[in-house]
Amino acid sequence: MLRLEKSTENKIEILSLFGEVDASNSVILDEAIQELVDGGAKSIIVDGEKLDYISSAGLGVFMSYLEDFNDKGISMKICGLTPKVHEVFKILGLDQLIPIYEDRAAASAS
Amino acid sequence: MKHKLNFACQTSALSELRAFLQGAMSGVSLSEIEKHQVTLAVEEVCANLIIHSHGCNPEDYIHLEIKDSAQKLVFEISDQGKAFNILTYEAPDLKKVMVEKRKGGLGIILVKKIMDEIEFESENGTNTCRLIKWFHS
C-alpha cells in the first residue's frame, strides 16, 4: 500500500511517501511528481521517512525525471530514508544522482 | 527447510510475495538489511515475469520454492511463460536509463548486485530461475 501527501513549505513542494512502492502502484508516484511539475514546481523534496519499501519500479520513476529536471532547472531532493531503503538507492548508485538528506530540515536548508 | 508459494501473475500479488518472503526468512542468519535486499531481488524477478512474460494474466501462475541449508538460501522461481534468461540479458547502464527515460531495466541491475549466484534453465516449457544467497560468517 502506498499513500502520498503533498504540502508546501517556503515555496518548496513536499511529497511525503507512506508505505511501499512497487510495480502495482508506482504509477501513483509518477502521477504525483508529474502534477507537481505541471503545477510549476521548482523545488521538490520527497520525504521518505515513512517509506518502508521501494522496488525498481519506484526508483525508475525518479530516474525518468532527472534529465528533464536538469534541463528545466527543477531541484529534487530526497530525505528521511530508513537505512534499508537508503541502501537500495546506494546499490544502484542513485545516491550519486539525487541529493539525499537525513531529514526534511537538512534538505530545506541546503 | 522448504517454503513454497504459488501466486497469480498480477502485480497486486507482489505485496503477498513480500510478506511470504519475510516470514520464510525470519529465522535465517542474514541481517535485516540483507533480508530486505533479498526480498527486493526475488520480487524484481517475479515482477519481470508477471509483466513481461505473462502480460499480467491472472490465470497464469508463478511457483516459488525456498530451500535453506547451513550455507545458503536458494530461491527457485518457475513459470511456464515466455522464457526470460536473466543471465544473457545485458542490463543497461544507469546513464542510459536516465537519458532514455526508461522506467525499466533497473530491476535486473539490482538482482545481479544483490544475489551471489544466479542460475537459469528452460526445459519442456518450464523456466526456472534460481537466486542464491550465501551466508557469510
From TrEMBL, chain A:
Residues 2-110 form the STAS domain. Signal peptide: none annotated. GO terms for molecular function: anti-sigma factor antagonist activity. Gene3D superfamilies: STAS domain (3.30.750.24). Belongs to the anti-sigma-factor antagonist family. This is Anti-sigma factor antagonist.
UniProtKB/TrEMBL annotation, chain B:
The keyword Repeat does not apply. SUPFAM superfamilies: ATPase domain of HSP90 chaperone/DNA topoisomerase II/histidine kinase. Transmembrane segments: none annotated. GO terms for molecular function: protein serine/threonine kinase activity. The keyword Cytoplasm does not apply. InterPro entries: Anti-sigma-factor_SerPK, HATPase_C_sf, HATPase_dom. Keywords: Kinase, Serine/threonine-protein kinase, Transferase. This is Serine/threonine-protein kinase RsbW. Residues 11-133 form the Histidine kinase/HSP90-like ATPase domain.
